[in-house]
Amino acid sequence: MDRKWWHDKVAYQIYPKSFLDTNGDGIGDLRGIISKLDYLKELGIDIIWLSPIYKSPFVDQGYDIADYYAIAEEFGTMEEFDELLAEAKKREMYIIMDLVINHCSDQHEWFQKALANPEGKYADYFYFRKGKNGNPPSNYRSYFGGSCWEPVPGTDKYYLHMFAKEQPDLNWENQELRQELYNMVNWWLEKGLAGFRIDAIINIKKDLEFPSFDPDGPDGLAGCWKMVESVDGIGEYLEDLKKNTFQKYDAFTVAEVFNMKKGELQKFIGKDGYFSTIFDFSAHCLSDGKHGWYDAPQIDFKEWRETVINSQLEVQKCGFEANIIENHDEPRGASRFLPEYAVNPDGIKMLGTINILLRGIPFIYQGQEIGMQNAVWNSIEEYDDINTKDQYDIARKAGLTDQEALAACGRMSRDNARTPVQWSHTENAGFTVGTPWLKVNSNYKEINVEDQEKDEDSILNYYRRLIRLRKSEEFREIFTYGEFVPVYHDTENIMAYYRLDGDRRILVAANFGKEAAEIEFEYPIKKMILSNQKGVEIEEGKRGLRLESCQVVILECE
Ligand code: GLC
Ligand code: CA
Known about the structure:
With 558 residues, the chain is an alpha/beta fold. The chain has helices at 30-35, 37-43, 78-90, 109-116, 175-191, 225-230, 234-244, 246-249, 265-269, 301-315, 333-336, 345-356, 386-397, 402-412, 415-418, 449-454, 459-471, 476-481; strands at 11-14, 47-50, 54-55, 67-71, 94-99, 128-130, 140-141, 149-151, 157-160, 195-198, 222-223, 252-255, 277-280, 322-324, 361-365, 483-487, 494-501, 504-511, 517-520, 525-531, 544-547, 552-557. The longest helix has 17 residues, at 175-191.
């Protein structure tokens, strides 16, 4: 396998709006990010992914871009962005931005021009289509609910939007539009950006016939992803995109890809793949509800273990995936992947260890390193997220009470991850001196950076040790390139694997059970490298170990 500059890096996602506010308007900003670069450096972060900071009406929190070349005023200025790039560079850190090119904002000048002249050139930057028999062109349900088609005022046409109606889809068939996007991507790369996280990219290829599908909900619509899954040919676009942009700069790209077709992984992330890597969402998909969040199943440990293992085995045949516990679209991992008895510092460290030492590029989401958890809110009014409002409605329409629908949002809402970072135990968690744009999680007095800094045993300090270990002279090679080999996968409640490199072997073993468990070593143990619990002594040559509940150990074997 060819070695790439990003293989051994550790990444961190910043959701700027909720990271740190420095001017008291309640919204996180670039100054806030700059001021925390040393904090991130100390955590061991190399690559920082910024969720969108472009000019936007924020209907979908910046994933609706009105100007790809401008920084949103809420976040700061282009000068401040350049300063961020320079300060990151000084610290040998890399900045990547979100690249949202499946759609733009309805406020983007392209869309405004298209509306002004629906027969003109810009209309073809989007999908303007006539309806069928007085209905929209097809029965697709958008990802945020309702039809994917919205009337174009003053015409008999509709435009396509797979997300909110304020996020019209861009027409990738149009070569001029593609060229505009490539120019924009290159403009940012020229500035010194190290690459991109690429949003919702699997959606760019449409079936131009726009066939309807059998309805799959009481609204008579069918999920638009069905069209995505049924159409071929996305590869040509992705290849073209890569050749005209990323490849020329040796950029690091990590794509958000759901609904990939079987057997395509190699094309996406293999040698000469379209992207450097994609996120591994396989464990997250385990809580996909049949009808929505309200019937989202709880994570079952066995299923989760099998899913993670299978994904690792599959991916290592061709490349690297980016491993996450959570992101800005997912609930907090501590609240999702751990049984209730394990939602404590030991359990959270255990989950972090298992994830960060997997083969792949670890992406840590802001606040994960202190064990931030889901928010508990009592009214749908407290939520901001467009997706959450839709899911709340779906639940109510399915007959759930307000309390039940809220419980579903409490478990699955994207706002769980979007509450402000808890920097301290002072008011508003030290995030802002003003009024935060989204409520701070009420547990900030127990969970915050400042207190954890002072506590050697905190989740934060454990994450630092863990990342330091992963990147150390001694172990960097094995944790980066070492083979992943599952072990003890028939032992109840144990999640464990080896990382193997030549004749070196590291064992990572965790007990997710409520009771202590015994494991027998297959190989004599050379040394204990790290554990989340104190007082583990391994006698040389010992053949077994008792793992306490929520304990994880990292051992070097003979
Ligand atoms: C991606 C983003 C999500 C956004 C959507 C539409 O899934 O991660 O936050 O709402 O795309 O851009
Ligand atoms: Ca601010």
